[in-house]
Amino acid sequence: MAEENIAVLLDEKRVFKPKEEFVNQTNVKQWMDKHNIKNLDELYKKGENWEWFWEEISKDLVEWYKPYDKVVEWNPPYAKWFVGAQYNIVHDALDKHAKSWRKNKVAFIFEGEPGDVQKWTYNDLYIEVNKLANAMKKLGVKKGDRVGIYMPMIVELPIAMLACAKIGAIHSVVFSGFSANAFRDRVNDSEAKLVITCDAFWRRGKKVYLKEQADVALEETPSVQHVIVCKRTEDAVPWTKGRDLWWNEIIKDMSKECETERLDADDPLFFLYTSGTTGKPKGIIHTHGGYAVGTAYTLKWVFDMKDEDIWWCAADIGWITGHSYIVYAPLILGATSVIYEGAPDWLQPDRWWDIIEKYNVTTLYTSPTSIRLFMRYGEKWPQKHDLSSLRLLGSVGEPINPEAWMWYYKHIGSENCPIMDTWWQTETGHFYISPLPLTPLKPGSATKALPGLSAEVYNEKAEPVQNAGGNLVLTHPWPGMLRGIYKNPERYQETYWSKFKSIYLAGDVTRKDDDGFFWIQGRADDVLNVSGHRIGNSEVESALVSHPMVAEAAVIGKPHELKGESIVSYVVLKEDADPTEELRKALWAHVGTEMGKIARPDEIWFVHDVPKTRSGKIMRRVIRAKALGKDTGDTSTLANPEAVDEIGNAK
Ligand code: PRX
Question: Ligand 1: does its nearest atom lie under 6 Å from the Cβ of 477?
C-alpha cells in the first residue's frame, strides 16, 4: 500500500471491510446461518432479546452438572447468572477435554526467555492440576478459602489457578511485576491461607528472585499458613521450615485423579485487584458460571477460535486479559495457546515475530503500547519472518491510535488480518465493545457492544448523546460481570451504580458516532492508563507520601508517545528535607518498592505547595491543565492559587 493511501485510510470515515470468503467461514456466520440471521443488524437485534440470547449461547459452550432454573436474576446492583445451576469452570476447561479426543492435544506451548520450550497437552494439565489440588486439600485448603498466587508467565501459573478452582478455593493472582508490599497488601485484604510462588524467573536476561520478594511480604501476612514454591530456575531460595513446601515434592505421591467440587454457578472463582480512585485497590469478584459463558463466547466469536488455531494472547496472566484469554476462555474452547515468559524485545526486537513463525501462530492479541514499541524498532524486524500463518489480530487495554492500527494492519497482518479492537475491563470480565470478524472496521474505534451486550454514552442528565464526549455506561447486566468488591459493598455501589441508577458506569469518556460506533477517549476518573495498565493517581500519591521526607504529593498523567500516559508527580517535602537529585532518585525507587516498577513516576518535581480546594482536596484537573500548558479555568476558589504558577514553572 502506498503511503499516500494510508493518509486517506486514517480518515475516520474510511471503513475496512473484511473479505467475503473469510466471513463465510467464521463461527459467528455459522451461528447466524443456523438461526436464519441474514446480516449484522439482525444479529444485534437478536442479541437485544438478551435472556434468550445467553441461553442459546451457553448451550454450545458449557456443561452444567445440574441445569439452571433461570438465566438471570437482577436485583440492582447485584446479578446472579444461571441461577440454580451446579457448575465448576474446571469441568469445561479441563475435565471434559481429558475425556475427549482433545486429551492429547497441546493446550500450552511454553517458551521461556532463554529459549527453552515445553508442550503441555490437556492430559498433562489435567494430571498436574489434580495432583496439586490433592496436595492443597491435604494442607487443609477448602471451598471458599483464598489462595494468593505470585507467579510469572510459566505454565504452573494456570495450573495453580485451576487447582484452586477445582476444589472451590478462590485464587487471587498478583502480577509478578508488582512489589513485595503490593503483594502483601493484596494477600492481607483477601486473607489468604496459602501462597503459591516460584524460585525466580527470567526477564531481560536477568533473574528476578520472586521467592525472596514473596518472603518480604510474608513477614506481615498473618493469615498465611503455607507457601508452595515451584521451581523455574532451580535457584536456591530462602526457606522457612514448616511453612514452605516445594511444589514438586508435595505433588509427588498425590493421586492423578481429584474430584472437581460441584459448586453453585455463582460461587466465586477469583478476586483480582484493580486500581480505583482511592489509594486502596479493589478486589473485584468473579464467579464460575457466567464468567465461563462470557469469556468463551467472546473468544469464539471475536477471534473466531477453531481447533486448528494457534492462539497467542501476549498479555500477562497477572492482569484480567491473561485470566480470561490465556487461562479460562482458550481452555474452555480446547484451544492451543502460546505462553512466552520474557520481554518482547529480548534478545532482539524480532522475538515475537520469531515465535509467530516458529509455532505458526494464527491469532495475535496484544496492546497498543507493544505495537508502538515494535513500530519504533521498524518494519525490518517483522520482515525477517514469515508471518503468513496469521489470520486475525487484536488490541486491548488503551485506545489504539490510527497510526499504530495501520502499522499493525500493514506490517504484521499484511493487509489480510482484521484487527479486533476489544474494549473491556477487569470488571466486565470479558470483551464488551468489540468488532466481530464480520464488522466493517474504522481504525481507532472498538465499534459496538457485542450481541447480547449493550452500551450507551450518557450526558450528566442520563440522556444518550451522539457525537459528543460523555460517560460510557453499560445498560443491562452481563454474564461475566463482577459480583462486587470483596468486603466493600458500599464502594461497589458508589463507584459503579450511583451516578446513574441501576446503570453501570464504566469510567471512560467516550463518543458515539453517526454509525453508532464507540470511540473510547480515556478514563474519566483519577486513574492513569500506563501501557494499558490501570494505576490509581492516589495510589502513587500514597506511595510517595509514605516516604519519611514527603509531606504531600500530587500525581497526574501526561500523554506519552509509547506508553499512552506517563506518570508525573509534584512533591512537597517536609521542612527538614533538601530537594536533591539523590532524594528524587530515592523517591522514584521508593514507589517501585511500594507498588512495583510500572508505577515509578517518569517525572518528579519538588514544589512548595500543590493546588487545593479550601476543603483540602488536591486539584489534579488544574495541575494537569497547567502542566500541559492548557487553560486552568477559574482558580479563584482554590485555597492557594499561587501554587498553580509553581506547577507551571516546574519544567
Ligand atoms: O480505559 C479503558 C481501557 O482500560 C480500562 C480497563 O482497564 P483494566 O481493568 O486494567 O483492563 C484492561 C484490559 C481489559 C478501560 O476502562 N481500555 C481497555 N480496552 C480498551 C481501553 N481503552 C480503549 N480501547 C480499548 N480497546
Answer: no
Picking from 541, 558, 559, the residue whose alpha carbon sits closest to that of residue 550 is 541
Global pTM exceeds 0.90: yes
Amino acid at 600: R
Asked if the 531-648 domain carries CATH number 3.40.980.10, the reply is no
Phi, psi dihedral angles at 638 (to 5 degrees):
-70, 155
Distance 650 CA to ligand 1 centre (A): 31
Helix (H, G, I), strand (E, B) or coil at 244: strand
Using the mean position of ligand 1's atoms as its centre, give its distance from the Cα of residue 534 in Å. 8
Q: What are the two backbone dihedrals, phi and then psi, of residue 625, each rounded to the nearest 5 degrees?
A: -60, -45
For strands 201-203 and 244-246, give the pairing.
unpaired
Name the closest-CA residue to atom 13, ligand 1.
397
Determine if ligand 1 sits within 6 Å of the CB of residue 297: no
CATH of 2-88+267-521, one of 3.90.1280.10, 3.40.50.300, 3.90.550.10, 3.40.50.12780: 3.40.50.12780
Residue 551 Cα to ligand 1 midpoint, Å, equals 33
- Ligand 1 atom having least distance to the Cα of 427: 9
Ligand 1: does its nearest atom lie under 6 Å from the Cβ of 160? no
Q: Is the pLDDT of residue 387 over 90?
A: yes
* Nearest CA residue ID for atom 14, ligand 1: 425
Note the pLDDT of residue 67.
98
Residue 1 has pLDDT above 70, yes or no: no
Whether 432 lines ligand 1, by a CB cut-off of 6 Å, is: no
**Which atom of ligand 1 lies at the shortest distance from residue 527's CA?**
1
The CATH 3.40.50.12780 portion of the chain extends over 2-88+267-521
CATH top-level class of 90-261? alpha beta
What local confidence, expressed as pLDDT, does residue 279 receive? 82
Check: CB of residue 278 under 8 Å from CB of residue 416: no
pLDDT digits (tens, 9 = 90+) for 325-345: 999 999 999 999 999 999 999
Encode pLDDT of 404-459 as tens digits. Answer: 999 999 999 999 999 999 999 999 999 999 999 999 999 999 999 999 999 999 99
Residue type, 389: S
